[in-house]
Amino acid sequence: MKEIRTRIAPSPTGMMHLGTARTAIYCWAVARHFGGKFLLRIEDTDQVRSTQEAVQVILDGMRWLNLDYDEGPIYQMDRLDRYKEVVDEMLKDGRAYYCYATPEELNEMREAQKAQGLKPRYDGRWRPENCVGKPIPEGVQPVVRFRNPDNGAVTWNDAVYGPITVSNAELDDLIIMRNGIPTYNFAVVVDDWDMKVSHVIRGADHINNTPRQINIYTALGAEVPVFAHLPLINGQDGQKLSKRHGTVSVLEYERQGYLPEAIFNYLARLGWGHGNMEKFTRDELAKVFELADCSRAAARIDWKKLEWLNGQYMKEADDERLATLVAPRIEARGGKVEGGPCLKQVCGLLKNRATTLEKLAENALFFYVEPKVDAEQAAAALADGGREALALFGEKLGKLADMTPEAVYGIIQEVMAEREIGMKILATPLRVCVCAAERTPQIDVTLCLIGKDEVLKRIAATLG
């Protein structure tokens, strides 16, 4: 069986978009499903917009999503000699030709075509048979154009959309090299040919490029890969996803406190389905993934569902790992993790109540900072017997030799019995005045994590 080889080939001109990340996940899944190879190629021929910072964003995004590639990163700018070699061969036998038309000439040509109600397209004026005896203009740097077939049609069986046919009459002689730099449609064919890519999986916005590329494959005598075009990701309003819908950069989700496995899972499910599978591991995806299961309709992102899914992963996450991820977020909020309660235990206590790492850090902050008690809330909490209950609790806690959740709960029960009060009369002052929070997890466990000395210090500061 032929080796299955897929690739993700982003341009380093900005952020790593959610659509690029989803495509990478599908490419990875196809390769892993068949035991093949997954490649990373950086398409950096746009020297005006490409930056090293954007390259790093791509590498960081791939690493964060744990998309392990087998070959690469391969940079197009390192392959200029190879593109020139192929172009020279095509020029020799007439598969390509030099075009000396200036930008001004081409603009005039297009305007004239529009005036006649025609579709603007290159008219072949510098095809060899059309310029016999025509002098080559001085001072004009020519481009190289591919000689597209005049007749017939291009047909391919798209792995997502099914059979697609485009007439060659709709295509013109596209530029394949300008100033020694290959254009996208040419470079991508040479790259995929050389790298033996078996499946080209990409967004549906590339469908118009595919017939042009297939003609170049045919002209080169290269095997045409399987093409699979993925519907775009839309916002909840059904419009193409953009910054106005919120976050569209993969790494921004890391900053917002999402776990990579949740983003991986959510993006994989956004436009693909297998039975009732909603939550799955990377290995489970690789085992069942088929391009035929991809939808032909654009997917709509649902931020609430993503946050819910992330919450499910948060509940299952290892506490030690969560502590590592949350620590810098607590520090960024002014908390001091070192010397405070065991963060691993704090994460274990709080993770079921948080849907992101940011929310977990916010919920854990009162363990690691001096609580900023709201005066009005404190006054309300200490009214109606709350002050006396809190004072008695502090007195009994000070005499406690070994602070455990069971012992703290015992003191709470004693105070309630002695003061003849309900749980709320004591629990509310403990939460508001000791934790600076209206709600906390189990109060006895929470107080034990804060520690006896710190709890007593906070009670004293409240009671004055």
UniProtKB/TrEMBL annotation:
Q: Which GO terms describe its molecular function?
A: ATP binding; glutamate-tRNA ligase activity; tRNA binding; zinc ion binding
Annotated Aminoacyl-tRNA synthetase class I anticodon-binding domain residues: 322-462
What SUPFAM superfamilies does the record point to?
An anticodon-binding domain of class I aminoacyl-tRNA synthetases (SSF48163), Nucleotidylyl transferase (SSF52374)
* Superkingdom: Bacteria
Its localization reads: Cytoplasm
Segments passing through the bilayer: none
Tell me the keywords, alphabetical order. Aminoacyl-tRNA synthetase, ATP-binding, Cytoplasm, Ligase, Nucleotide-binding, Protein biosynthesis
Q: Establish whether keyword Aminoacyl-tRNA synthetase is in the entry.
A: yes
Q: Where does ATP bind?
A: K243
Record keyword Protein biosynthesis present: yes
List, alphabetically, the GO terms of the cellular component aspect: cytosol
GO BP term, pick one: glutamyl-tRNA aminoacylation
- Place the motif 'HIGH' region on the sequence: 10-20
What's its EC? 6.1.1.17
Q: Which Gene3D superfamilies match?
A: 1.10.10.350, HUPs
The residue ranges of the Glutamyl/glutaminyl-tRNA synthetase class Ib catalytic domain are: 3-308
Motif 'KMSKS' region residues?
Answer: 240-244
What reactions does this protein catalyze?
Answer: tRNA(Glu) + L-glutamate + ATP = L-glutamyl-tRNA(Glu) + AMP + diphosphate
An example Pfam family from this entry, by short name, is tRNA-synt_1c
Query: In UniProt terms, what function does this protein have?
Result: Catalyzes the attachment of glutamate to tRNA(Glu) in a two-step reaction: glutamate is first activated by ATP to form Glu-AMP and then transferred to the acceptor end of tRNA(Glu).
Q: Known HAMAP family for this protein?
A: Glu_tRNA_synth_type1
Q: Which PANTHER family match?
A: GLUTAMATE--TRNA LIGASE, GLUTAMATE--TRNA LIGASE, MITOCHONDRIAL-RELATED
Q: Which NCBIfam families match?
A: gltX_bact (TIGR00464)
Family, per entry: Belongs to the class-I aminoacyl-tRNA synthetase family. Glutamate--tRNA ligase type 1 subfamily.
Q: What is this protein called?
A: Glutamate--tRNA ligase
Species, as recorded: Sutterella parvirubra YIT 11816
